[in-house]
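Office hours follow-up: a student asked to see two folded examples consecutively, so here they are.
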Amino acid sequence: MTRTRPIDDATLTSLAGEYGTPLYVYNAGAIRRQAATLSGFDIVRYAQKANSNLAILRLIRSLGFRVDAVSAGEVLRALRAGFRDQEITFTADIFDRAALQVLGEHAVHVNIGSADMIEQYAHIRPGGDITLRINPGFGHGHDKKVSTGGEESKHGIWMAQQAEAVKRVEAAGLRVTGIHMHIGSGSDFSHLSKIRHAMNVAVRAAGDDLSYFSVGGGLPVPYRPEDHDFDIGRYTRDWHKTKADLQQDLGYDLVMEVEPGRYLMAQAGLLLAEVRAIKTSGSQRYILCDAGFNDLLRPAMYGAYHHVSIVGGDTGMTFPTLIGGPICESADLMTQSKGSVVDPRELPEAQVGDLVCIHDTGAYGASMGSNYNSRRLPAEVLVDGDDVTLIRRRQTWDEMLELEEVSPEPIVQRP
């Protein structure tokens, strides 16, 4: 499949001129198109860790979707974006003290990933309903770091311990009303058959109060030009078969939930950066730009692939090229594969001042950003048809430093 930009070159050039670079650009229309493919599920719950910008959350809520939160801060973000308590689920493997305080103040449903959380939740919400997140004993993903099942994953209650956990729930005066299972990003259909079987077992062992099950997220998107779109129709049909079998055996209806994050956001976003230097080192040609792994961590952390293009670049002769950033680390390459192996891209000639477009960065781009090397967080804009909205302004130098000014010392000027 040929990757295309969601926004044309003229608009990108104009946005970079107005808002500067690095700049995240999101396309609201692309989010809506992905959302429309999920209509076969009873509930769509957005995994906001993919991109938790308030404007994105408000757009997601306008689609009738609910939201998942994995921290106290994400609960408060969801509330600020307009979600009601009953539209939010808190999913975690621990309750830190901040989370317990927020959950004590808001009647947010919880998805429990460790049995020790049961009594802690009963203390702040006596008689409450909970979901159990089950680790089915296997995982999957495009990288080991995103596999969320199996012995080497910290997530979820080990499936063989589910019965014991259900007893603890009952003893604590709570009710298990949901089962959640998520084995990792990049799930394929061979693994889907395994998790559907595991879901059958887990749901039947959940007790008499069960009303819904969540199939998790991790729906793939095509990052590489040769990748194909995920068969969401087949995925939906397969889960409907599981739902029908469970309902027939249990004798009552169940609600089926899906939890997309990357699937909704990745292709809707891109990162614009300005070319600041071009050089060769031996046989390698480098384009160095003003976006680093503090802006987009996925290539350095996972060896993740992102298609790269030059805005307005000549489509004629191309050269193997590595894209690097300004961070003082050798890992600061947008073009690398697993194991820090360099992965040059065929790109046309570029000049200082040209724009580099890093594609499919709407998920786990800005949300994983940092101030490493004391670099400011980038700006973000949302394009909706002809409307452009600045949804996060660029961080100022003072904002980056202000939390450290507890007892400010004057700067001593040496003679």
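And the second, which I mentioned at the end of office hours:
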Amino acid sequence: MKKVLVLHGPNLNLLGTRQPEIYGHETLEDINNGLFEQAALAGWEIACRQSNHEGELIDWIQGARLDGTAAIIINPAAYTHTSVAILDALNAFEGRVIEVHLSNVHQRESFRHRSYVSLRADGVIAGLGSQGYRAALDAVMAAER
């Protein structure tokens, strides 16, 4: 069974209540439950994790190098624009990487237009809300067929 790791960065634990006009009304649990169902139907194993701590996200990325994970779907949130350390960890991961953003970061403040993670990502999905995560999982599974 192929494995995918979904990582949610800082403040995404507040989905559904934090700026719903930007991020929508679905909670992180809603998003994860949808991904669990989608992966199970396709015979994939999925782990979804969220942290407000950069080092914890890096530890999970490094762990994925060793546990047979085929792909990482990551919404690095604010770390998108600041974390060379997350980029370096992703560069050491040999599987596919898909970067996801709920909002269209290119329609927002100019500092959000730069993504370090995009330098490693095989694909980037932005502005589709929670559907972006499902599209990322579809892309990962299609690439592994």
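Two things to take away from it. The helical segments are 20-23, 28-42, 54-64, 84-91, 131-143. The radius of gyration is 14 Å.
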